[in-house]
Structures are given as structure tokens and as C-alpha cells.
Amino acid sequence: MIHILLVDDEVSFLHAVRDSLAHNEDFIFDLTSSAEEALEKLNHSRYDVIVSDYSMPDMNGFELLTQIRRSSSIPFILFTGKGNEHVIIEAINQGVDFYLKKGDDPDILFAKLTHMIRQAADKKSAEERIQEKDQKYRELFENSSIATMMYNPDRILIDINPAALSLFGLPSAAEMKGTPLFMQHTISDENIADLYSGKTLRYSKILNIDDIVPVNSYPGTRHGLIYADISIIPHLNKDGTISEYYVQIIDLTAQYRAEEALLQTSEQLSQAITGSQIGIWDWEVQTGELTVNERWADIIGYTLDELKPISIQTWNRLTHPDDLKDSSDLIQKHFSGDLPFYEYEARMKHKNGEWVWIHDRGNVTEWDSEGKPVRMVGTHTDISGRKRAEEEIRKKTEELDQFFSVALDMLCIANTEGEFTLLNPAWELTLGWTKDELMAGKFLDFVHPEDINATLDAISDLANQKDVINFVNRYRCRNGTYRWIEWRSAPVKDSIYAAARDITEKRENEALLIHKKNILDAISYAATTLMSSLSDDAINNVLARIGRAVDASRTYIFTHSYTAEGRSIISYSYEWVSEGINPQMNDPLLQNLEWQNMGYKRWASVLMQRGIISGIVRDFPKEEQTLLIRQDIKSLAAMPIFSHNDFFGFIGFDHCIKDHEWTHVEIETLEAAAGLLGASFGRRKAEEEVKIRENNFSTFFDTIDDFLFVLDMQGMMIKVNDTVISRLGYRKEELIGESVLMVHPEKRRGEAGEKVAAMLSGTCDFCPIPLVAKDGTQIPVETRVVPGVWDGQPALFGVSKDISEITLSEEKFSKAFQAGGSLMAISIDSVFVNVNKTFLDTLGYTWDEVIGKSSMDLDIFVEDGERDQVVKEIQEKGYCRNLKVLVRGKDGRILTGIFSADIIQIQDKEALLTIMNDVTEMIRLSDALLSANKKLNLLSSITRHDILNQVQALFFVKELLEMKIPEDSAARGELTLLTKAVDTIYRQINFTKDYQDMGIASPVWVQVKEVVMKEQANKIFSDISIEITTGDIEVFVDPMFSKVCYNLLENSLRHGKRVTRITVSWKSEVDYGILIFEDDGVGVAKADKKKIFNRSFGKNTGLGLFLTAEILSITGLSIEETGEEGKGARFEIRIPMNEYRHGDTIPGSEL
Fold first, then answer.
1. What is the side-by-side order of every strand in the sheet holding 568-577?
2. Are 1084 and 1113 in contact (CB under 8 A)?
3. Is the domain defined by 702-801 classed in CATH 3.30.70.250?
4. In what order do the strands lie in the sheet with 2-7?
5. Residue closest to 880 by CA, chosen among 867, 894, 896, 862
6. DSSP secondary structure code for residue 1019 in this structure
7. What contacts 169, CB < 8 A, 6 or more positions away?
8. Can 2-139 and 290-359+366-377 be said to share one CATH topology?
9. Tens-digit pLDDT profile for residues 1007-1036
10. pLDDT value of position 1151
11. What is the pLDDT of residue 389?
């Protein structure tokens, strides 16, 4: 059925459409005369097609389409009035699927509408099927049992499925991505050439995994040789080039070894038969005639001649009477079809009178027309030796039982029902239970509740005849504690044979190592944080990090000072508390505490002598316990904070939940933290002392002979020294608050700004532009500018050194001029007075042909407009930079050059120094590369279109096969594999469309707030709050940055589960900025934080975060997830300093 929503403000027209199309029994109509009501219906009902009028009072058809397209791609058919051709054109631009004119003949109109509805519904249905099949294809790739890898045309791995990861023993695709195709280790040069030509290679070979997997890539990586069936399938573009290599590896190692063993067995059998080691018999069942070989007779000590005549009676006569009846019964069961073959171990009388054990085996090879046996053949094997060996095994078994009893490891036999059937004494020694107690019920009764599900999974694997190695769970001891047990188990039918070992001490040692690492990480964090900042937030963050590392309930700092009377006092200044612990920061008793008079004289003495206070509170002197018990403290440790010999206070750590014995590792950690705080407090004290010296600096500042400028980040003068005032002739009031460019020549101020920006970016050492005094006098200087801080704000410091006494070295200039690789010329009054050798060689002139001539005389500029532009720019600025020009050589060749010019002084005369770099070849190569790129993109689009056409054909074939192949056919499984493969191809081909667009357009400056607000308007985010606090921050990014913002918002909505708020904020660091997307959802698991940016991570989630990281990397941006699991996801995009700005301001460009 096709569900259709009709929208038109003319109710009569709605009824006419419905009635005219009523003969279509599969059409279901829903009518509305209002666009607003149509939107409401779409929120509650599903429609296959929308048919809407264009002209409606409250909202026209285009506006309705815009609203719908925000959340749906449902087909949209638009009715327009007669003569509204402009509406038709706009409809096509707006993305309307079909349009109709109302004024046409009704029969034709409704016939067209019927056809359009069916066509639109079919298109929608096809798109939904394609999406479903795309998912199935990916699942095929992920769930295929065949190891499959994909390589790019450079034979570098780009994708790998779980079966391949399992084959190589790798945990994730990250271990393999980027590795080269291993074929050079496995096939000949001739076959490699065939592969490069597009031929598919299939071969079997013993393969060394170390040639495929990077050495030592992961501790669990498989090593060594496997016998594999390998297929390398190149995927060809239409032009014959290779787009990808698909590699499939089937591990045939077990089969290969089995075949080797079978071959060896066959050879041995042949040798045995040839050497008469196996007796062969051939029995004519209906006649009783029996034919045997020499070995058959030899086993019982006879020759063939001694046994003749041989018949079935010979067998009956020589077989032990106790075995003859059972043997005959088994033969009859074989004759009746109850047994596929006859087999029995019997005793036969040896010639010497002893009984010989033989293994008798055979089967009927010929039947008559009535189904009765005619002929039966078989073998006799002397198993007397085996019988003797079995007796030896029985004795050995008794010895093993004895070993079972004395082994130190916990050995057991259990069944898959969860019951012990045999235990050795080590179980009693380890757990304290008797063997009878352990075997009385299910062993799951002793397993820790948190480990039961994992234990059940292990039992299931064993029941499926899979070994379980290195499995760990916890068993309850008689005293109520639990011990960690590590298992190695192997199944034999319904029995489980296992060896277990108590690893409790090992686990405790591992936990201790982790505890130590957390402590070291906390100290490292403290060192880094306190080095850059000593703010209250920084100190509190350090307290929190160290407190969590040592599992403290509360960490805090008491700062120390003296009263005016010289009494020692301490104040509770900083604090961190864990969840559920009462803070003490606002307790007035802990402020300005005269501790020596409040029962803590011992503390003051010990701590001020660089000692430590630690222990359990109930063991402290009574006078010390009062205040501590009031804070619920059960144990504590306090470390003094010193900087050199100055006592700043102490850092304390409390345990309020239970008594805690402090280890030496924790004590050392706390002492290190106190040392870092002491160094930081000492640094802050030193900084305060520096402020005292600022007045001295001011005096020094004004005694320097160089010109000193202090500027804000916009280049406005904040402070200048006396040299600037006296030599330039300005009053201080005339300079402060003005741009520093005012003291440079007016025509070169733009150049001065560029030079300053270059110095700040590190691409230029100094600025050579002179200073200009108030009276117009120019003072030659070399100016250097560096960033810094003035009065607590970012600032620029400029130092200009007077170089009036430094004269130009004409000799050095001449050498540099002549040796330059660029075309260089000096002209006065437009006439060349000097050119270098490169100028003459490139343009083909001699010295005499150039000197005294102008560029117009030589007709050097191909375009007169370019020469006029050069002249105009020099007249306006005093220079020109990097102009692209066309010049003509003497022989008429046209060259492309990058042209720059500066006005210089030569003996008090203005001259023009011009420099041109010949970039003709570079331009030619660049144009060729651009053309090639356009062709490649066109080829990619065409190829993708052609492939998708073929995939669509495969989808149709698949549907036909589904109808033709019965549900219970074995071919159904193969059809499913084919479908998943086609789905994967469709998904990956569609991905190339987005990936192709990356980096094609040049990066642009965009305002973060505008981009996010645009994405926020999407209807899928209507139920959550999105707060944007980035201000006017702009970033330099690929034009696909909007997709980055959408992906991050949609990722929170999709995976955050309970997200109600998303915050987009900005944070500035010293050398970079951080754009933060943060939500209040469930967050990201720690183990997944780096995996989420992998292309193969996750299911049914597309390629959002992988594509996000790729788009950001185009302009050097990076992204990582730093949120806390359970509290929300936090994505931080790190942006280099030169990749962001405020508003239209580029840092440093104002100068």
C-alpha cells in the first residue's frame, strides 16, 4: 500500500484528487488544507509520498518542503499554477521530486500524478532497501569467517575484518593499518607482474605471519608458519588502473598437517602391507572360501601351506571360543546394516599353543541381487604388543593418580553440569574446604557472584569442546574471604580436566603496581600544573589528583604565617574531598589557628623541623584527637611545605572511612607533593619580590639609548622610554594610545606591519624600516619585536637600534647581487643601471643591450597593464610584492615570473631594486597537476556511479534468487554471504563520495558559533539544550567543518543515551586553543577513547568520528575524547595559534 498525504487549501481540489485516483486500490490518502497541519501529521504518521500545492496562505509549498527536508527525505510532488514557470525553475532548485501544472487536462493531470506517485514511492522503497542492504554488507565483512584485508593502490592496508585479526592474534585494526601488502614474501616476480596487470592470484603456500604483521606489534600476536589458501584480487577502474587489492586468507594449517599425517600413514600402511606386517583376508561369504596373505598366517605362527585348505572353518577353529560368538554376532549386525563395518579384538591360537591378540576388521564389498553379502574383505593386525602396552598404561595411570594426590597445583576433574568429580588435596590447603564439601554441590556455589556469568561462559566453551586457557575467577574460602584462581582447562566429551593455581598474591602485587603508577602520574601532573600556574584552581586540581591516587578522603593545605606579635598561626586554605565526605573549608575554627596553643604543639615542632605527622588518630595524644574526631578523621598524614628554609605550611591527607596504614610509597609521594608545592610557593614569593623591583626597572628603562616601545597586541603604544621622546621630538601624550606605525614612513607602514607579523611568527629576524621624527627626519634602525606580558596582559616589546653609522658595503652587495639566482636589476629614472648575470642569461640579452635602456625600450612586459600595476603600486606604497607577471625574452619566449620591487637609496638618489623569480616551469607543472586532479575527481565520480549501477543490478539478482532458492536450501547461506559482500561494497563506495570532497576546496575562516547554530536548527536536536559560549572565535578549516560539528552533536545524541544538554565552549592555552564539545550523557568507556576515531570501530554508526578526525587533520587540527565515563563525553579539538582568531582579526596583522 502507498500512503499519500495531500496538502491544498482548496478542499474541493483535495476531494477531486482523492476521488479521481480512488481506482488505485493500493493508494491510501490523508487530506489536509493546512501546511501547519501537514507538519503535525508527519510527526505522528508515516507517509510514502507528499503531494502539495505551491500557493497556500500561511506557508507555501517551498516553505513546507524546507521544513520537511530538515528531518526527512520523503518524496515531494508540487502542484503549480498555470504560467508559473519561475516557480517550476525554483522547484527544481529546491529539490522537488516532481511538479505538475494544475491547468492541464484533468485526465492527463491525474494520469501523470498517478505515475509520479508510483515512481516516487518506488524510489523511496528502493532507497530504504539500499540502506538495509548496505548494513548487511558491512555485517558480512565484519562477521565473515574468512580473514579478509583491503589494501589501497599503493598496497598499504586500509581495512581488516575480525576474522583476520583473530588469525593474526591482534586486538584491533590499528595494529595492522598502514602496513604494506606482504606478497613480495609469498609469490614470484612474474606473478607479481600479473597481479599489477589486474589478474587475480590464487595459490596455496606456507606463509610466515611475521612477513605480514609488524614485529612485536602486540603481545598476543601469532607468530610462525601457517599453510594458507591465499587470494589476491585487484579491483580495476575502467581505465585499467587498480583502485584496491582484496586479500583473503584461509588457514589450512590443520588440514595440511592432517594430510601430511594421512600421507605418512598411507606410506606406512603400504610399507606394512608390502612387508607383510598386516594380515589380509578375503571371504567368499556364500561358499565359505577364505583367502589370506602370508602375514595372516605368520601372525599365528603358520605358513600358508601349513594352513591349507583355508576356509571360514579355519577361522572358527583357531579363534578362542569365548571370542568366536561375539565376533559372529558383530558380523551378522554388519550384514543386517546395523553396523557400517565389522570390527573385533579376538584371541587366536598360535602354533606354539599361546593365544595371540589380533584386531580383526572388515566390511562387505559385494552384495547379490537379493541384498545378501557375497564378498567381505578385511585385515588382521597383531595387537599383542598393544595389549601389553595397555597393561603398562594401567600401571602408569596408577602412578599418575599418585602424582595427582601430591601435586601443589589444584587439579580436578569436573563435568559440564558444574560438578566436581575428583579433586586433589591442594584444594583443601588453598580454600580450607574439605573435598567432600566441595563435591557436595555445584562448584558455582563457591564462585564470587560477580564472576558467575564469566564462569558460565567458560563452561559453555568447554561443553563445546573448546579449551579454556588462563581463565580467572574468585573462589570463596571457608573463612569467608576470596582467592583469585587461574585455570587451564581441557574438555573430553562431558568431562573437564583442569589445573588451577592460586594467583591472589600475584593480583595483589599487580594492584600495588597500578597504585604506584597512579601515584607517579599524580606527581607528574602536579609538577606540570604547578610549573605553569599557582592559581587556586590549579592547587585544588593538584590536591584532587593526588588525593584520588592515594585513595584519601580529604586533601588540604594549611598555610603558615606570623601575627604582628610573632605568634605562629595556620589557616585552612585549600581543600579537596571525595564523594560523601564533609568539607571543612568553611569551618572558622580552622582559620588563623594558633596551633601551638590548641593542643598541636607537637605538630608545630615536628613539621617546622621538616618531620612528618602520620598514623591512626586513636593512637594520637588525647589533646590532638578532639579537633580531628570532630572532622571524622580516622587516620592522616601531614607533610611540611618548605622552600629552601622558609616554612609555608603543610599538606594533609585524611582517611575518614576506615583506618589506613600509610605505606612508604605513599609517604614518599606525599613528601614529593609537598616539595613541589614548596617550590611553587617559593616561586610565587619570588614573583612578589620582583614586583617590588619594578620601580628600579622603570629607572633602568629610561636610561637605555635604544628606542624602546611597549605595545598592546593591536600595536598601540602603552609605554615608551625617554630616548623615543627626546630623539623623535614627540610629547609622551602624543604617542601613548596611538599606533606604533605613526613613527614609520607613511608609505611603508603596511610593510612595517607585515614585518612585525613575520617576526612574531619566526620567519623574520628584524625590521629594517626607519623611524620618522616629528620633523620628518628619518633615522635608520633595525627593529626587533618579541611577545611578552606587561601589567599582567599580553604585550609586544619593540627595540629599535640606531644604525645610522653603519654604511652599506657595496662590495658585499655587488657579490650578492651578481650571485643571486633571481633576475635582479637596479634602475634610476626607469633606466637600467645594473642587472645581474641571471637577468642576462634568462632573457638572452648582453650587458650593452640592457644598460641605459628601460623595460619599455626592451618590450619586456608582455601585458602593458601589468607594468602599469607595478608602477602604481610602487608609487602608492614605495614597494610591490609577489606580483605575477609575464615577461618576454630577447628571442620572443614568454616567461612567468613573481615580481617584487623596493625603492632604495644610492648616493642620495632614489633607485628601484627589482627582483623576479622565474616560475614558468612551476606554473606549467601546477596547471598540469590541477588538470589531472580534476580528471581524477571526474573519473572517481563516474567510476562510483558505474559501480553503484552494477551493485543495484546485484541487488535485483539477489531478490530474484531469494524467490527462487528454497528457505531450507544450503545455497541460502552462500546467498547471504554474497548479499553482505555487495552491501559492504555499496557502503564503502558511498563513503568515497564524502572522502573525495575532503581537501578539494581551499580552507576558509569560519565563525564557530554560526556553524554550530546552523546545525542546531536541525530538527533532531530540538529536544536537547545546546549552549554555545565560543564568542566570536573563528577557525581556519576545511569547508566540510560543518560536518564535523554535525557529527559531534549527532554522536552525543546517538550514543549519550540520556543527553539533555550539549555545551560548545572555547579555551585558550599558551600556544593553542581548544574547541570543546561536551554533553551530560553516559560518556565514553576508557578502553574505547582512542578506538572511536578508527574507521572500523562500532556497529551501525557510520563513519562519523573517523571522518571528523580526517577533516580536522587537513588544516593541522587534532581531536581527542577526554570526558569521564558516567559523567558525559567531552571532545577537545586542539587548534594551533595561527589557525584561529577573534572576529576578523588575524594575530599580528594589525602592525
1. 568-577, 554-562, 646-655, 635-643, 613-616
2. no
3. no
4. 27-32, 2-7, 49-53, 76-80, 98-101
5. 867
6. G
7. 218, 220, 221, 222
8. no
9. 999 999 999 888 888 889 999 999 999 999
10. 26
11. 76
- Phi, psi values for residue 1100, rounded to 5°: 60, 25
Fold of 2-139: Rossmann fold (3.40.50)
Residue-level pLDDT at 1150:
31
Residue 901's nearest CA partner among 922, 921, 877 is 877
pLDDT digits (tens, 9 = 90+) for 1060-1113: 999 999 999 988 999 999 999 999 998 888 888 887 665 444 456 888 888 898
pLDDT tens by residue, 440-484: 989 899 999 999 999 999 999 999 999 999 999 999 999 999 999
Instruction: Dig out the grid coordinates for 1065 from the structure.
Output: 565552549
Q: CATH topology for 404-502?
A: Beta-Lactamase (3.30.450)
What are the domain boundaries of the chain?
A: 2-139, 144-257, 290-359+366-377, 404-502, 533-652+659-692, 702-801, 810-918, 924-995, 998-1142
Topology of domain 533-652+659-692, per CATH?
Answer: Beta-Lactamase (3.30.450)
Q: What topology does CATH give the domain 810-918?
A: Beta-Lactamase (3.30.450)
Amino acid symbol at 1134: R
Q: 591 with 573: CB under 8 angstroms?
A: no
Cβ 901 vs Cβ 882: under 8 Å: no
CATH H superfamily, domain 290-359+366-377 = PAS domain (3.30.450.20)
pLDDT, mean over the chain: 85
Contact 738, 749 (CB under 8 A): no
List residues bridging with 358 in a β-sheet: 346, 382
The full 3-state SS of 965-1016, as one line of letters, equals CCCCCCHHHHHHHHHHHHHHHHHHHHHHHHHHHCCCCCCEEEEHHHHHHHHH
Q: Averaged over 509-534, what is the pLDDT? A: 80
**Among candidate residues 1056, 1057, 1048, the one with its CA nearest the CA of residue 1012:** 1048
Helices 664-692 and 694-701, packing angle to 10 deg = 50
Identify the CATH homologous superfamily for domain 144-257.
PAS domain (3.30.450.20)
User: Distance between CA 376 and CA 363 in Å, rounded?
Assistant: 6
Distance in angstroms (rounded) separating the CA atoms of residues 488 and 585:
54
User: Which residues have CB under 8 Å from 834's CB, separation 6+?
Assistant: 817, 825, 826, 851
Beta strands in 580-727, from DSSP E residues, in sequence order: 613-616, 635-643, 646-655, 707-711, 717-720
**H or E element, residue 885:** strand 879-888
What residue has cell string 513546507? 64
Count the Cβ atoms, other than its own, within 10 Å of residue 182.
23
pLDDT at 1149: 33
pLDDT digits (tens, 9 = 90+) for 334-352: 999 999 999 999 999 999 9
423, containing H or E segment: strand 419-423
Chain Cα centroid distance, residue 47: 39
Using one digit for the tens of pLDDT, what is the confidence trace for 59-90? 888 888 888 888 888 999 988 765 566 777 77
CB atoms within 10 A of CB 656: 19
Q: Is 314 in contact with 307 (CB distance < 8 Å)?
A: yes
Query: Who contacts 682 (Cβ-Cβ below 8 Å, separation ≥6)?
Result: 643, 644, 646, 648
Alpha carbon of 306 to those of 294, 298, 379, 380, 1146: distances in Å? 11, 11, 20, 18, 114
Superfamily designation of domain 998-1142: Histidine kinase-like ATPase, C-terminal domain (3.30.565.10)
